[in-house]
Amino acid sequence: MNPDVIILADTVHTMEDRTPGSPAPQAVAVQDGVIAAVGSRADAEGWPAAEVIDFGAAVLTPGLVDCHIHPVFGLELTRGCDLSGAKDLAGVRALLRAEAEAIPPGDWVRGWGLDPNVFGSAAAHRELIDDVVSGRPCLIRLFDGHSALASSRALELAGVTGPRAFDQASEVVCDPSGRPTGLLLEAAAVELVAQLVPAESFDERKARLAELFTQFARSGLTGAHVMDCGEGSLELFRALEDDMDGGLPLRLRISPWCMPGSGEEDWRRLAGQIGVGGTRWEVAGIKLFVDGTVDNGTAWLFEPDIYGESVAPFWPRPEEYAAAVRFFAGRGIPTATHAIGDAGVAAVLDAFESLPPAVRSVAPVAVHRIEHLETVPDALIARFSRAGLVASMQPTHCTHYSRADHSDNWSTRLGPERANNAWRCADLRAAGTTLGLGSDWPIAPFEPLPILADAQLRRRSGRRDEQPVVPGQALTALQALEGYTSHAARAAGEWAVSGSITVGKRADFTVFDADPLSVAPDDLAAAQVLATFVDGRVQHLAVGSAR
């Protein structure tokens, strides 16, 4: 063995079972991008290496992987002013007024991250923003990424004067007289206006994406499961791989969307993309949807919410969703299905439980997942343990956008019983389910350390005065870390090559200045990521963190 680099740290969490009584490792050797040896500091003295990086008292883990994120789609969703910090309508209006005054006359006013809770009991309406943007075209993305609010001028330019029919469960929301309120629900409706907003140039998008990837690496991420593949995405990844020294600073596993209204010809085209990629990125799955979101009334529930909404599937003919599942599963192609409401989750379980044996036998190792699972009753938890599906969840959706007293929009819509079935992470783990964790950025911040903390706290880290949301669903420190390491690898079907510090696996690591398995969660959220490695190469190194 002639390692390229040896990495030393006083604590190494391998995330694999260790023989009781065996010494804890403190050294990892890397050769040709994979782990060549794991041992003690004394062992490392006998390993001839070109380079030794000693992090002293720091903690080394497998590289953190975000299991649900939207880097390229997020570039579009985060244009304009950030409204995520606004606490009320007055705050939103002030930020939009400032944005309108800061940009050239005639430009579109854009905003993102709008929390529907700012409207209180009132409905989102274009008249609430028209005056502060001085009658200019304005498009605001709500925080859920599934809805937007357009100004009167924006609707006029788009020719949107009343209801529209769509192939998916989308809606141009209208008042009783049939006039659009400005609220646009789901992608097809939003796109009526969004397609008119001037696009950024390729070079502008590439520069923003390069900076975003750099931020990901600094936050501790060495990989991400990308849940979209919009126009220009693959070209951006190729260009960045060529431009960035050493390639992309993290691995990307990409799942293009399969939408309602598509058929076998479209599915074959999507299947043909599987395997397309570069050194650290690859199209490796398909993303589907069976519903929208609770907050805008487009989730799929067994019983309607308090407004009589959230009773329709995203695929108007759910049997077509099941046919798409059979098509991809029958070709051994992994799928990830967005399902938030209880009826939506049940529909996904139904589709996979009804797969013919011949389909199941084609590629039994292909991993199929359900994303989000925001409200799930006991009966569906039990079915998960039998179905073999992976759960992919985002703890900060719970801690950022719901409240323990059920006064938030999400909980109010659902009512107490369903709100108490919120984000059942602990119960899914207890049932033996693989549980990958992530951020869903830009829906919530991508920094993994606060997410690891929130998964344990069931409240927003750093806010000790907040009450936890359904605290019985808190994860342990180990379960949270597994969600970003070993379970993230299993959620991608990559446990054989990643997810633990094991000889022969990828040399992807994250280094912390605090131990994620023993430090208090609030302190973990404020801890520092000292370094990230991909293929044994440094992608981020904090000044003074190593010797």
Q: Could you explain the architecture of this structure?
A:
The chain is an alpha/beta fold and 547 residues long. It has 2 domains: 65-71 and 202-531, Metal-dependent hydrolases (TIM Barrel), CATH 3.20.20.140; 80-194, Diaminopimelate Epimerase, Chain A, domain 1 (Roll), CATH 3.10.310.70. The protein has 20 helices and 25 strands. A 6-stranded mixed β-sheet has the order 8-9-10-11-13-12, with helices on both faces. Strands 16-18-19-20-21-22 form a 6-stranded parallel β-sheet. Strands 2-6-23-24-25 form a 5-stranded mixed β-sheet, with helices on one face. Strand 20 (368-372), helix 12 (378-387) and strand 21 form a beta-alpha-beta unit. The two termini are 23 Å apart. The mean pLDDT is 94.
Q: What class would the helix/strand composition place it in? A: alpha/beta
Whole-number total of structural domains: 2
> What is the tally of helical segments?
20
- Strand arrangement in the largest pleated sheet: 8-9-10-11-13-12
The whole-angstrom Rg is: 23 Å
Q: How much strand content do the residues show?
A: 15-25%
Largest sheet: 6 strands, mixed
Shape: globular
Name given to the CATH homologous superfamily of the largest domain: Metal-dependent hydrolases
Total strands: the figure is: 25
CATH fold name of the largest domain: TIM Barrel
Separation of the first and last Cα atoms: 23 Å
Gross CATH architecture of the largest domain: Alpha-Beta Barrel
Helix proportion range:
25-40%
Instruction: Report the average pLDDT across residues.
Output: 94
